Amino acid sequence: MSETLFINVVIIDGTAAPAFSGQVLVKGDRIADVAREGASIDAPNAKTVDGSGATLMPGMTDAHAHLSFLDAGTLGELTNLTPERHVLETAKNARKLLDHGFTSMFSGSSARDNTDIAIRDSINAGDIPGPRLLAATRQMTVSGGFGDIEKDDAYSLVLNGPDEFRKASREAARRGVDILKIVPSAPGSGKDVLAEDTAMTDAEVAAVCEVAHQRNRAVAAHARSAEAVKMCVRNGVKMIYHATLADEEAKDMLEARKGSVFVAPAMGLPYGRLKEGESYGVSTDDYTRARAEKEIETVSANMDELKSRGVRVLPGGDYGFKWNPHGRNARDLFMFVELFGFSPLEAIRAATAHGGALMGMEGELGLVTKGAFADLLLVDGDPVKDIQILQDRDRLLAIMKNGDFHKTPSVERAQAQVAAE
Fold first, then answer.
1. Crossing angle for the helix pair 83-99 and 115-125, nearest 10 degrees?
2. First to last CA, the chain
3. Which is nearest to 61 in space by CA: 105, 17, 112?
């Protein structure tokens, strides 16, 4: 069994507790011991990594991942490639996200049936590098709902009525997905730029959740309207994306179910469009700008309140579009601090310990504690002082997943050596 001992590191353990100096021993795929400053770990057979004061923290989780979204300019472009080339390009994204410190991904939908499954299984088999991945369906919407773009091989599956949703969910479970993705809300009409309709019925949402609960799958939902959020909570949806217009009743319901439900505001798209669209050659008209500005303002207030109520709010920003490309994912942690009122340690907890819980591995993933899986990042600098350094892949001196180095520390900064026998 391989052993690695990290010494001279400042440890962020993922719980939002203050960082501390110490040592960490990894045996196989688990953390075997953690020692605080003043204590040392006796591991004569371990490879020693001297962090020289660098930060050791858990690997991060993206709670709204779209690995098969290939930085497209429009929704219609998501499936422009052949299925075969699409899988190869998705594999590149898997490696890119691991390169950026994301050791786990909870999929927010696959652009094609089975693409997530193929990538997940290839990662698990060791054929390609990538994060732990929970694989999702294409998003399941209704006629006229969000994602019904009237295109052959579209990224959405259009269904109507509980029987169609139930059948599609069972077929997806047979293929081996982990997550059933639904779209209960759709853009509405009216003077309010954030107007949202509730497009799915309670019976349709209940049908998907029924299958998920029978087959031990999770349900994730694109839910912006207040009624869509409430519908999801009532029926046992695990991950609620956006929650843009959650009213007091919806927030009360989320708080009551805070032990089993998660929220990811997915602010990458509006923030990226407003702040960085032009740098990617994407123009923004007055309506899109007004919608993005109001969404940022509304969601920021809601997420701040949900956090204060103890609801687990996680990063995951719909990355995979031209103005919101893969590799920028750690920008979400900056937004949590800048917009939502999180402290840096709270933002890191959201991406690590809470991410582990979302992945179904609460207490075992996203923590630097004895017995947890050894998904670790060695960071050049202190993300508590500057959360933005996590956006720089070059500041990641080492990346470990399951006890194995994806990125080995360089000899210049953190020398790894076999201890003398």
1. 50
2. 16
3. 105
Q: What pLDDT, in 10s, does the model give residues 106-160? A: 999 999 999 999 999 999 999 999 999 999 999 999 999 999 998 878 999 999 9
Measure the CA–CA gap between 314 and 298, rounded to whole angstroms.
Answer: 17
Residue 411: per-residue pLDDT: 56
| Separation of alpha carbons 16 and 350, rounded Å | 9
Beta-strand relationship, 185-187 and 196-198: antiparallel
User: What is the DSSP secondary-structure string of 388-421?
Assistant: GGGG-GGGEEEEEETTEEEEPPPTTTS-EEEPP-
CA distance 59 to 391: 13
Measured in residues, the chain has a length of 421
For residue 103, the surrounding DSSP H or E stretch is strand 102-107
In terms of Cα–Cα distance, which of 213, 259, 235 is closest to 357?
259
Helix axes 226-235, 202-214, angle to 10 degrees: 30
The pLDDT confidence band at residue 414, using thresholds 50, 70 and 90, is: very low
Phi first, then psi: give them for residue 88, nearest 5 degrees: -65, -40
Q: What is the pTM of this model?
A: 0.95
- pLDDT grade, residue 277 (50/70/90)? confident
Q: Using CB atoms within 10 A of its CB, is residue 215 exposed (0-12), middle (13-18) or buried (19+)?
A: middle
Residue 221, amino acid: A
Q: What is the mean pLDDT of residues 242-270?
A: 96
Nearest by Cα to 375 from 17, 24, 45, 8: 24
Q: Which of 162, 176, 253 is nearest to 210 (CA)?
A: 162
Nearest to 338 by CA among 273, 262, 267, 289: 267
C-alpha distances in Å from residue 68, one per residue of 74, 81, 357, 401: 14, 11, 24, 21
